[in-house]
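To the structural biology subgroup,

Please find below the input and predicted structure for Type II inositol 3,4-bisphosphate 4-phosphatase-like isoform X1, which we are adding to the shared reference set this quarter. The sequence is reproduced verbatim from the submission form. If anyone notices a discrepancy with their own records, reply to this email rather than editing the shared folder directly, so we keep one authoritative version.
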Amino acid sequence: MARQSRSIKGVGVHGKEAEPVTAGVLDKARQHDYAGTRDPVFLTGVSFPPDWPVYSETLIKLSVYGANDGHQQTTNFLGSSSFSVADLLQSKDQQLSLSLRTADDSATVGTVVVSRMKMGEIEDGEVDHITADMHQKCTLVYESSHGGINDKDNGPIMNAVFKNAVCKVYRFQTVDSKWMLVREQMAECTLSFSIPKQLIALYIQEDTCRIQELKDLGELSPHWDNLRKDVISRYDQIIKEYQDTLAELEKLTGPSFKPSCSKGQKYLEFIPINLHTQRMRVTCPRKTDSFYDVVTVGAPAAHSQGFKNGGLQKLLSKYESEKKSYSTAYQCIYYPPEQTAKAREILRVVSQLQPHISALADQLLQTAQQSSSQPLRDILKSLEEKTEQFVHALKDELVKSALLALHAARPGYVSKSQSSAPSSPAGPRPGAAEEPHGVCNNVDGSKTPQKESKVSPVRSDSIPHHKEYDEEEWANPPLTLAVWRDQLGVLVQSLKECVAEVAERARRSVSFVLLQEAACSTAQGLQLQQRRDAVFSQALAALACGFVMRLYAGLEDKGFLRQLHAVGLVAQFESLLSTYSEEIGMLEDMEVGIGDLHRVTFRITEAASEEAVSLQPTVSGRRDRYTVEVPLPHHAFQALPDELREGKPLRVLPVLFNVGINEQQTIAERFGDISLQERINQKNFEILEGYYKSLTNTVPSECLPCFQTQTDLKELLDTLGQNVVTKKRKNVEILWLAGMICRRMNGIRFTSCKSAKDRTSMSVTLEQCSLLRDEHQLNKDYFVRALDCMRREGCRIENVQKNIKCRKYAFNMLQLMAFPKYYRPPEGTYGKVDS
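Predicted structure (tokenized):
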């Protein structure tokens, strides 16, 4: 008998960790313990790594343990059996039927069937795998591993972002008595921390710029100057808090996820809860492998701030209604959210276009010295377009009213009614330089408030084109061309000065709008901004994780890439929160956080190298608009369509569907209010339907993935539309349909509950088994067995262990009585524990 000093560390009966055992001795078996049965289902597996010497004479011992009580807290030895590797390899069909004997070898307590499976059937590596099946009650195969180096799902690109993978492998029987191999892989994501840390740094940068913009407003009347000081003081406080939070996050090392037990930690409020990716890969006879991905994450919500007064949706609504009374008290103009959003957009456009116009103007002068007029025409065309965009942005009524308001806030301002009185001093009113009239016309030639000179527009038709000058004439230009060049220089310089002057006025006036908003909001408004920042950070980290995972999976799919740059992707968030008590606040936070993701676009870039640090996505922008750049290695980037390589902004359309399934939802449906859930589902169905219309009008049907289920996508949408308006308790069909539609549309799937640990696990495993049944002909007699096996032995119970150091879903029997049938875990896998 060959003995090795190395050990196989297994998981004992009912998920308890077993002692290490020597190689060649199987770890404690895993058992489906259906309370009260004397004929339990028993299954386990063990693999031998390539660096372990296993010979034909190596003996393997199987030891079986049972549960002493219904709660499976203790185990007792039942029996064991031994065999050699040679016995197995030389047996018929490489399968042995062994008698299970008691410790004293006095009695037989059962039969164990052992079979050999080549993992090379689904893996690149050739690893032997031995499985035991008691009484031939279940032909499932189970294996635990951590992703080998030959694993197709763990290449260099994946390993840069996804860490600490846990893998589970199953073998299920199909309706035609064939075998399918199913591989689950769950991984953490580095973006759980890197995206929030980048966002916090951007928040700090933006608020620091906001303070400078307020200071740049210049001299204000005492009333407005005092309000400005108060607002700056509040921004300083937020910046200090964000800096402290960022400093704490920079100290963290270890796992790449925030466990559910830490969801109330203040310094971790920007980090998504329990963010993991999960991939199911299915290998069937005579069929290519199929992949199914889902991102699991706790509902984006401000747990550290609590839900006593509701969540963001309710708080923002209340805040907006109160702002009007604040505006009267603080002598401010009330600006609704859409106006302040427009003000921020104008600031962004002005800040972006002014340097662009200036750069094009300089480029124009340089090109005018060259020996060809065509490049000159091209630059002039670009300059003309950017200038028109600039003028269009500043013609908004908001800019004009803001200029008047700022003018009135200057020291010594005298209104027109006051200035017409006999006692008014003669001469121009103080602050006349800020008069708003003609602010946009400055760019295209109208008289400015301070200047009498006019700026003629620089247009592409102003280039001399009656003849083409040759190279010598451009080098030694005739008088006409030389004069034109001089005139062009004057025009360009005037344009740059005028654009700079107008941009500065626009910035000051729009900054004054934002000052009024902040002044009217008191401290409550900035607290809400902090809450919104934290919730958005969690949501964006999850979205970036899902986008990266979906992009990596589709790099060789031309149809998917075409869809990506043509209409973008749908990101479908499934929520299982109830509409009762604190979870109402969580759902209100989540709704706003998911909605704010509309402000995010993605771009694909070429990585500087193939090092992990160069493959990390980066975030840029301000609160009104963010861009996530996803770098790819050179070979992957060069294989992309031109639109993607040119950096086209890629849109992701987030939609949220919620159906509560727990006992609190029962209370809400019978005695409470579920209007929030109904409104969310109806609103997001309309968004999803709009995306479907864009998709079908733009992208050929062959670009979408093929499914065995023949139901038409339009039919699925119609059925979903009927369900969201149907009054039906715990209508989980809404979630099933939305998830199915998302997969049919090449979308990104997310599943959430409070902590992404318990209800989420039930949903993910149910979806996986449904896919095996509908798409891969899983034998219907094995559906519930497969479901129980995944929940008992699969990645989700490992997720529970990672979060709370206990292999129990946080349910009790009373709670589960309120759950829909297929959302209930098997006996022995649950117990009320702190989550």
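Summary notes: The first strand starts at residue 7 and ends at 8. The CA atoms of residues 719 and 799 lie 34 Å apart.

Regards,
Lab coordination
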